[in-house]
Prior knowledge:
It is a single chain. The chain is an alpha+beta fold. Among the domains are: 44-83, no CATH class; 84-230, no CATH class. It has six helices and twelve strands. It has helices at residues 2-24, 117-124, 143-148, 190-193, 198-205, 227-230, and strands spanning 46-48, 56-58, 61-63, 66-67, 69-71, 78-81, 89-90, 105-107, 176-177, 183-184, 212-214, 222-224. It has a four-stranded mixed beta sheet, with no helix packed on it. It has a two-stranded antiparallel ribbon with strand order 1-2. A hairpin with a 2-residue loop joins strand 3 and strand 4. The longest helix is centred in the first third of the chain and has 23 residues, at 2-24.
Amino acid sequence: MKKLTLSAMLLTLLCSVLPAVFAQEPAAAPAPADAASAPAQPPDIICFESRKGASEVTKRDLKPGWPNVKCSSKTGAVLWWGDPFDGTVSMGDMPLLGHIPKGNAVVKPRSEKLAILPLCGVACHNGLVPPTLPKTKKPVPIPTMEGLVPELKNLQHGRERIWCLDCHHTNQRNKLVDNFGDPVSIDQPQLLCGKCHGDKLRDWRDGIHGKRIGEWVSTGKKRWFTCTECHNPHNVQDGARNRGFIQIAPESPPQLPKGMKDAKHELEHAVAH
């Protein structure tokens, strides 16, 4: 009887101690998730607004279900903008644009996307380095420059009548230069291009040349596309074509509504004559 009572007491003691011991043990780490079974993140969709390589934009949602751009699966170009003023800033002073209310002419700055721009103006051409400027416009091979910007080896602009310092400021190479030798922001190339292309500058200013998106009214808010968003200034002649920029394949025409055989109604004038 005494043996039975002693066994019962030992069993009771063990039952009271064991839970406390196991409670002090660290919890087992969760099993690592299988990377192969985790859903893969879709890659970013990037398309260009005017010139491939110079005006790329990454597709994102401005609001749920409202993308900033729609990209063409055929050409990789932007088909339409969810907000034409997304990421824009005021264009700044522009001669003979006084009729447009301040802030209604906006542009999308590109200088922040030009990877070698800080290098040009700070490390390589800061007014002190190199110590002397070339004395002639005769091209000199510079391996570093050719490695960074390959098209400079055969500059297709001006038919060999211009060189780097006709466009880039002497001491501030991250700036352009106007007719008076003053520095011009990379984001306002029209002030540079107009030095030689005055007729195109006038057409661009009047809305005949180039592209704008935004409000329809003539003095309404619009995003202006600047010269270098469409034209590559280092290869503006585009080889033998000499047209200024690479053409892109057109989109397919829109499909006719169901049941409509042709679009001959488009040839009829809305008002009978």
